[in-house]
Amino acid sequence: MIEPNNIWVYYRISTNMRQDFLRQMSAVEGYLKKHFPGKEFIVREEVASGMEEERRVELKKIIDSLQKDDLLVVASLDRIARNTFQLLKTLETISKKGACFIIVDNPELNTTSPHGKLVVSMLSSIAEFEYSLIRARCKQGLEAAKKRGVKFGRKPSFTADQIIHMSDMMKKQDTNVSSLARTFNTTARAIYRYCKSNGELTPLGEYIVTSKYKNYINRPLPPMPRRVRRKKTDVVEDVYRS
């Protein structure tokens, strides 16, 4: 067992459960009295969900304060991580600082011994292998979906016909972009995402139009959509005159 410079103790309880720190205190203090008798330690406590890493402010402060040959002690694994990736990320950060890590009820994960370091290394290899499998499966699923014609991403704010109408109107010198934006219940900035100031289609506008009209070349002006306002946030619907 190493002789640490500073011992840091981290206690955490969840926000959605009726818990207290007594169980963790009993386990950690009993361990420290047995292995580091008379050694002072610094305690940090917090109430935070284990699923939301960014909310564990005190844990981040401890890790930022760790120095070479310091020791971080927690009562159980679930107090510091909820999955293998989260655990290994934390252990990697601690190791880079030259500090060690002890889980009281999981001695095999302690990085203060060669055996513990071996176990952590094995877990890291398994996690990396699992992550590679997940990425491979996701890639296969995306390729299969594309072959079935599935389109990814957010649904366009305007239809192909609306974008064509915007383009034709923008080509006219007397067109006011603000007025055109009000016609479609949108903003001038949104129109410029699909059409340039000279009326040419942007790559996004061209993609949407050619997806519907593959041979689009100077297509005639579609009927002007009658403005229909449902809510302030709604986009103008295509209601064509018969």
TrEMBL record:
Keyword set includes Transmembrane helix: no
Molecular function, one GO term: DNA strand exchange activity
Ranges of residues in domain Resolvase/invertase-type recombinase catalytic: 6-149
Record's keyword terms, sorted: DNA recombination, DNA-binding
Gene3D superfamilies named among the record's database cross-references: Resolvase, N-terminal catalytic domain (3.40.50.1390)
Keyword Metal-binding appears in the UniProt entry: no
Protein origin, superkingdom: Eukaryota
InterPro entries in the cross-refs: Resolv_N, Resolvase-like_N_sf, SSR_resolvase
Listed name of the protein: Resolvase/invertase-type recombinase catalytic domain-containing protein
